[in-house]
Design brief:
Blueprint lengths: L6 E4 L7 E5 L6 H26 L16 E6 L3 E7 L3 E5 L5 E6 L14 H9 L2 H10 L14
Antiparallel strand pairs: 1-2, 2-4, 3-4, 5-6
């Protein structure tokens, strides 16, 4: 069996944690599954660590329903696989007057670098305040994981 490539925990620029692995040329379905399960285990561990540290309950009841214990996005190309654990679908945002303009959800669009809005008011609120995008990204993902001793990413 081919050894798995080095898995990377990546969160240096983005306000959330994700896990990635390069892929060999023409991987078998079994090998892709091994990489996927390894990334998923790491994401579950990171989510559990966040949950224990913060006291937040993450995706309660899913294991009892035979579902994944965490929410996540998965991206697959011919060169890499990326798994991003999620804590929520998105965030409700307000306009510059403080009025609620709607929830902005990131689901499958997250790893594609795309954000879809449903109204001009949502678009205007995001366009007029760049911090709102950071707030949405922080709300949906597991925060970057750091070592308690020196603050470095584990």
């Amino acid at each position: 069996m081919t050894p798995l490539p080095k898995m990377r925990l990546t969160s240096s620029v983005l306000p959330f944690t994700y896990f990635s692995s390069s892929l060999p040329e023409d991987p078998t379905p079994e090998y892709l599954h091994e990489i996927y399960t390894s990334l998923l285990e790491k994401a579950c561990s990171a989510t559990k660590h966040f949950s224990e540290k913060s006291g937040d309950v993450v995706n309660p009841g899913s294991v009892a329903r035979n579902e994944s214990p965490i929410m996540y996005n998965l991206a697959l190309t011919d060169k890499a696989m990326v798994l991003c654990p999620r804590l929520s679908e998105g965030l409700e945002i307000k306009d510059s007057n403080g009025d609620l303009v709607g929830p902005v959800s990131l689901n499958g669009t997250l790893l594609g670098g795309t954000l879809l809005v449903k109204s001009k008011q949502e678009w205007d609120a995001l366009r007029n305040d760049e911090n709102k995008l950071r707030d949405i990204l922080q709300a949906i993902g597991v925060p970057p994981i750091t070592n308690d001793k020196d603050g470095k990413i584990c």
